[in-house]
User: What shape does this take?
Amino acid sequence: MKKQKLLFESGNELAAYAARQINYHVMGYYPITPSTQIAEFLDEMKSRGEHGISMIPAEGEHSAAGVCYGAAAAGGRVFGATSANGLLYALEQLPVQSGTRFPMVMNVACRTVSGPLDIKGDHSDIMYTLNSGWVILFAGTPQAVYDMNLCALKIAEVVSLPVIVAFDGFFTSHQKRGCFVLEEDADVRAFVGAPPPRTTLLDLEGPVSIGSYMNEPDLINNKYQLHLAMEEARQKIPQVFAQFEELTGRRLSPAEGYRWEDADILLLLLGSSYHTAKEAVDLLREKGKKAGAVTVNCLRPFPARELVKLCEKARFIVVGDRQDSYGAGGGCLSLELRAALQREGLSPRVLSRVYGLGGCDFYTEDALHLLNEAEDPSAPDFDYFGVFPGREPSGPQRYFDPITEQEASPGVTSCQEENGRVTVTGGSLPAATAMPRRLAPGHGACPGCGIPVNVNLLLKGIEGHVVLLFQTGCGMVVTTPYPQTSFRVPYLHNLFQNGAATLSGVVEAFHQRQKRGEYPPGKITFVMVSGDGGMDIGMGSALGAVLRGSSMILLEYDNGGYMNTGYQLSYSTPKGAKSSTSHLGPCQQGKTFFHKDMPALMAAAGAAYVATAAESHPADFIKKAAKAQYYSQNGGFAYLRALSTCPLNWGSRPNRGRAVVAAGVDCCYFPLYEVERGITSLSYDPEKSGKKIPAEEWMKQMGRTKHLADAPYRGVLNSVQQEIDRRWIRLKALSENELL
Assistant: This one.
């Protein structure tokens, strides 16, 4: 045994710690709760110079998986982490990785797959990967997360397959426990060993083509080889576990049981619930009932023989599934056990219970209930555990009276088009008070949050009926906690990566239903609200809507980060800003690249109307909203971007939100302008008004960037100022050219 030390850490922290000790070449990642912390912890360690992993912040999980695949194809040791819908978004890439036999390790902090949106832990995500060709280990404790991460890479490279290390989100991922880790990184690297020789993309003397088009019969042979590799993994995993036991004294096994040897009744659970079940078993044993508990630590290859051996004497088995294979009469764990028992000719009574969905806690009393239910002859073979009756169906509960067409059309603004340009009359702040609020004051946003301010300013400039779509993000989470809603108008939610496409579908269905006489005549303005990095992962979908000319408005509240997951860097974060994935330290100086110019991208894609707006200039904001409505209702796509304060993560004072935004405008980090049918015009010139300030004056007002004024970061600040100046000079040149 090698020397070890005791740490008090969570599963996410230990996954990062193991990755640091291994010192992978590359990590491709995208923030998603509850796996996000793994990248955060690794970035913090990187800022201190504790590892050399190249951490690539992709714009979405699909791209993160592509980063990992490319790095593995180039011969690198590769690490990743994701959860829930992020895993499903990357799912298309998983068979690519396994089908071409490139090893890597990915941690999955298991979480509910939406919709509806829920960020808590269950197993509905990991079960989608069972047929992906990946080895899947499942850790029930933070200690097992560390241990399995060390074993995973060794297994992956022995059998040339990628490996998932899965564990319960918010239970195992965030629960801190005392855990032992190898004290010397050298011992970890000696255990893992040197990478075995394999074909790589960088072999210039023996160039290969990877991922060629393959037809029959070659494809079936490829999949057969994948099957053989998985069967080899079945043999190699116990060997690696045995080597790990020699190294640490801790025993891992594909399946394990507790007081199972003479048990009449067994409870089979996956992950952290197994340890709760053991407490229930002890209580029943005190009462003379022969109860036991079993679990599996390896989902693929499934340890059927080991599990059957643990279950062969039981007369009753209750299987708890934290997901449902809808219509199959049980979740995946139930189905796997039933098949394994049938192959061995065993026929105990097996009850399947779906439990713990959406992160519902699982208590000792719950385990006792399931164990006691096993002997009840009237108990159904399949059921849900933990559901409760809701109210009698009477239609949706109305929280607000609907806004009528007349109420929503007080004449705040009016638009006229002449010579290809739209002129807005009205739009004064006193007049805008007549517009009813579509977003009610009752929401859960943080004090000083700019999201409701910007949404309400936009909607003050839009007359008539409105339908809203919100992408996932803070704006969505704080306004629609079930069963309440803050909206007085129709509202739809979809995920970050697909909002614009979803609203395009709404728009087209509306037009088609009107054409067919199925919906009354009249106009509706369709508005999508994005932010929290939504125009990173959702940029492709948004550009597609622009290119199609979808009749809609897209408002992006630019709060400069993935705020809804705890402030990780996004492509809109200022260069040099500190975040939970761009730490400051002797080896790192905050975010390493410049903020994305999304309005320029939208204009280049051909959006009919593009504009920037700020709460510091409310009348300008309202008039631009009116213009956006005009274009969206006349066959065009309109995009507005508003600088949106986030005092919690910007490190600014909540009562100074408008002043901080004004400084961002006056230093030209966020210039106010519009691009109307390809023609650019400035809305506000701080130089001419004598209000232009250096970027430093703005950045000193926020905790996330005030360090840039210090000597060690002056070089970063100077580069930021130069880029702001370059973009401002270019924008002025565009505005002075009547064709641009």
Summary: The CA atoms of residues 351 and 380 lie 7 Å apart. Residues 218-248 form the longest helix (31 residues). The chain has a mean pLDDT of 95.
